Amino acid sequence: MPSKPDFIRGSVWMRPPRSRGGGQPTLSREQIVRAAIELLDAEGAAGLSMRRLGSSLSAGATSLYWHVANKDELLELALDEVLGEVYVPEPLDAPWRVSVSVFANSLRATLLRHPWMIGLLGDKPTLGPSAMRMGDRLVALLTEAGFTGFAMSHVSSLLHAHAIGSATIEAAIAAGFGRGNVTASQVLKEIEPYLDKIAPQHPHYDQWRRANPVGELDPQQLWDDGFAFGLERILDGLEHWLTAGRPATPSPQPAADPT
What we know:
Elements (H helix, E strand, L loop, with lengths): L28 H15 L6 H7 L4 H5 L5 H13 L12 H18 L15 H17 L3 H32 L3 H14 L5 H9 L7 H25 L16
Helix pairs in contact: 1-4, 4-6, 5-6, 5-7, 7-10
């Protein structure tokens, strides 16, 4: 059995694009990727196959395989395409906290529009033009804010982690509600008798729950407020770190030689 290509060498971005010689099919790679994204948005990664994609485009497998070797390559292309939706402001367009907040909110919104991409981040290389452009613009923004060296990398990871973490939980809960064909308000109402029953075992939580009846609030507003609260606290900490004289961030040490 042939071995599976590794994480990097098997990437679509690591091989040259196929030459545009004679006999090229009428479908373009852009058309194929956009159709794949429509399928992914509707049914997730499990619902995408080369056969289903070909049917949706009324095309044979030959037209698809001209541009992509397999589903993994197609997923890489689709992921990079939707990463192009993430907006990173230009440096000096606004105060750095505002610009960073715009980026983080745009990343979260993109993930929620395309929740299938959450499972691909880290599993697929993000080396395509959209991902690299987003990274380059973020470096420019953070450089102007005053971050340097590996501290900049840590700040970028922190912002990505907050957006991805928030979107992951929200998308998972939304999918669960969708499978049960229920709303968040209905779920909260249904579990209230159970929470009342176990209240004596959890008095602190029960006291907080009764003082803050979340069932009366808009669930989406709660998600948005929670994300904004966390982002503001992250930015508070980063701003304090900058104004405190930017304490040195240790550089990664070379791995020890196992021999």
